[in-house]
C-alpha cells in the first residue's frame, strides 16, 4: 500500500508485507499484492507454499501475524464482519452437511446472509441450475460426487451476490 495507509479505490484486494506464522513455521512471508476490481488473480505454487493460508487470512479465517490486508475496502482484522459480507468463498474443504440437500443448504446460506425469503427462494432456484445441480438439488449431499460438492460450494459462495470471490483449489 502507498505510504500513509491510503488504499486505492480501484483495488479490490490490497496487501502489504503480509505474514502468517505457525509457531516457528513462516507459512506466509511478507507478501505484497494488489488486485484491481474486476481482475482475476491466481496463486500458483507447490504444496506448502502458503497459498491456502493467504486465502484464509484474506477471508478472515486466520488472523495475520504481521502486515496488513484490505479486502473490499475493509481491513481483515478491524472489519472482519464487513469483509465477510463483501466476499464469497469456496475453499479447499467444503463445509457441507451430508444430511442436507442442496436446496436445504441454499436456504440456510441465504438465511445466514440475511436475504429476504423471496430472494432466498430466487437465488436458491437459480444457483443450483447455474452450476448444473438442478436435477440433484433435492438429494442429500452424502450422495454427491466430489465434483458435485464443489459445484454446490460454489453456488453457496455466490448466494449473497459477493463483489469478491475466493476459490481455493477450484478444479
For the biggest sheet, the summary is: 4 strands, antiparallel
SS-derived structural category: alpha+beta
> Terminal Cα separation, in Å?
31 Å
Helix content: 25-40%
The strand order across the widest sheet is 2-1-3-4
Alpha plus pi helix count: 5
Strand content: 15-25%
**Low-confidence parts, pLDDT < 50 over ≥5 residues?**
1-7
Return the average pLDDT rounded to an integer: 92
Shape: globular
Protein traits:
171 residues; alpha+beta; four-stranded antiparallel sheet; two-stranded parallel ribbon; 5 helices; disordered N terminus
Write structural notes for this entry.
With 171 residues, this protein is α+β, with helices and mostly antiparallel strands. Helices cover 31% and strands 23% of the residues. The strands form two sheets. The protein has a four-stranded antiparallel β-sheet with strand order 2-1-3-4, with helices on one face. A two-stranded parallel sheet has the order 5-6.
Short description:
This protein has 171 residues and is an alpha+beta fold.
Architecture blueprint of SSEs:
Blueprint: E1 11-22, E2 25-36, H1 51-58, E3 66-71, E4 74-75, H2 80-86, E5 87-90, H3 102-112, H4 117-130, H5 146-158, E6 164-167
Parallel strand pairs: 5-6
Antiparallel strand pairs: 1-2, 1-3, 3-4
Helix pairs in contact: 3-4
Amino acid at each position: 500500500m502507498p505510504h500513509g495507509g491510503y488504499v486505492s479505490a480501484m483495488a479490490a484486494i490490497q496487501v502489504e508485507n503480509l505474514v502468517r506464522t505457525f509457531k516457528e513455521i513462516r507459512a506466509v512471508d511478507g507478501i505484497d499484492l494488489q488486485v484491481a476490481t474486476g481482475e482475476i488473480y491466481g496463486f500458483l505454487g507447490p504444496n506448502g507454499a502458503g497459498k491456502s493460508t493467504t486465502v484464509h487470512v484474506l477471508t478472515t479465517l486466520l488472523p495475520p501475524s504481521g502486515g496488513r490486508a484490505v479486502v473490499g475496502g475493509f481491513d481483515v482484522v478491524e472489519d472482519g464482519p464487513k469483509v465477510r459480507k463483501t466476499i464469497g468463498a469456496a475453499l479447499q474443504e467444503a463445509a457441507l452437511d451430508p444430511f442436507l440437500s442442496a436446496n436445504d443448504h441454499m436456504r440456510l446460506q441465504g438465511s445466514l446472509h440475511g436475504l429476504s425469503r423471496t430472494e432466498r427462494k430466487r437465488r436458491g432456484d437459480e444457483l443450483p441450475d447455474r452450476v448444473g445441480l438442478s436435477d440433484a438439488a433435492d438429494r442429500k449431499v452424502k450422495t454427491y460426487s466430489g465434483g458435485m460438492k464443489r459445484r454446490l460450494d460454489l453456488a453457496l459462495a455466490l448466494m449473497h451476490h459477493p463483489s469478491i470471490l475466493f476459490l481455493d483449489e477450484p478444479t
